C-alpha cells in the first residue's frame, strides 16, 4: 500500500484519485437516477432529458477528456524530471573526475520533454473520439448481435451507404422509466429479460422515415420506455447506424432477413409495393428471434402509437397464437378470387370457423404457440398454391393482395380479438385521388396509414390530409433547427 502511495506521489496524482472517486459516485448517481440528481425543470412525464442536462453531460465528458490529458502530461513531466535529475548527477560526477563540463544532459532533458508532449498530443487525438461518443450504460450495441450473411458486417461500407442515401434524422430526446416502473432484473441487459416488452419492426430505405416515427411514438407514450426492446429486421446495410444516431439509448437488435428465403414463393400482386420480400419477414419472426422471446408485438412502418404500448403487450390471447383487432363487418370474400370460392376443397378451408378480416400491420404474437403449431410452414404452403396458380397465366390465382391473404387463410376465425382502438387503419386512403379518411368515433390508441397514401409523402408535397398532422410530431427526418 505504501509503495503504491509513493508511486502516486511521485507522479503527482496522490490528490487526484480521491476527487475522481467522488466525481464517479456523483456521475453514477445521475445515470441511475436521471432527473433527480440534476432536476433542471424538465417537465416531460416520460423523463426525456432537458437541454440543460444534455449540456451538463457534454461538459462532464469534456472534463473527463481534459483530466485524462492532464494525467498523461503530468506523468510524462515527472518522468522527464527524473531523467533530468539522473543527467545532472552524471554531469556532476564527470566534472569531479574528468574535469570540464558536459552539456548533453540539458539537451537530453529537452528531447525527453518534447517527446513527452508529442506522446500526450497523440494520446489525446486517439482518445478524443471515444470520449466524445461515450455510450450510455443502458444502451446495447446492436452490432454485437447483427446476423448478416457470411462476410460479416462492414461498418465502413454501412457508413458510406448512409452518406450516399442521404438520410438525415434529428436525435430524439432520451426517455426514462417512470418512478413506478418495475426495476430491471439481474438479467436486465439481456434480450431474455422477462420484464421487457418486445416490439418487431422492419427497416428499409423506402419506409425508414416511417419506422423512425413508429419508434419515436412508442417511446413518447410508454410509461416504461427503458423496458421496451426493439427487434429490427433488415435486408440491406447501413440502417442500423441511422437508428442508433436517432436514438442513442435505444435497446435493440438487428437481424438480417435474406430476401431469397421468400422470393421464390412470392407471386406478383395488384400492388408492386406488396411484393417486397421484407413484407413477408413477419411470417418468420418465430424462427428469427431468440427462443427466449416468447411474445412480440409486430408493427408496420406507417403508423404511430398514441398510448402506452404495455397495455397492448398485456392483452390476453388465451389459446391463440395471434391477437389483433378483427373487422367482421368487412366483406371477407373480396380478399380471394372467384377461383378460390368456386373450388369446394379450397373454400372448405374456413368451414367450422367464423372468418373475419384483420390487418396484419398490428399483431401480438405468441411465439411459443406459433412454433408449436408450425404456422410458418402453413403460411408457406398457401403461398406455394398461389404460386402454382399464377404460373398458369393468372387464372389459377387464389388471391391478389400479397402477404395478407396467406395470414387470413391460416388464422381468420382463430384470432384473439383486441379492441379496435389499437388499429385505426385505412388512413392512407388513395394517394392518387387525394382521398382523406376521418377518425372513427371512440377512443384511439394507434393510428395506421395503411393504403396507398403515406403521411410523409403528402406532407412533403404540401397536400396533407387533416390526420397527417397527427403523424408529423413524431417525424424526426431532417436537420435540427439551430
From TrEMBL:
Its EC number is 2.4.1.-. InterPro entries: Glyco_trans_8, Glycosyltrans_8_dom-fam. Keywords: Glycoprotein, Glycosyltransferase, Membrane, Signal-anchor, Transferase, Transmembrane, Transmembrane helix. Pathway: Glycan metabolism; pectin biosynthesis. It is found in: Endomembrane system. Pfam families: Glyco_transf_8. The chain crosses the membrane at residues 55-80. It is an enzyme of class 2 (transferase). It comes from the Eukaryota. It is a single-pass type II membrane protein. GO terms for molecular function: glycosyltransferase activity. One of its GO terms (cellular component) is Golgi apparatus. Belongs to the glycosyltransferase 8 family. This is Hexosyltransferase. It comes from Zingiber officinale.
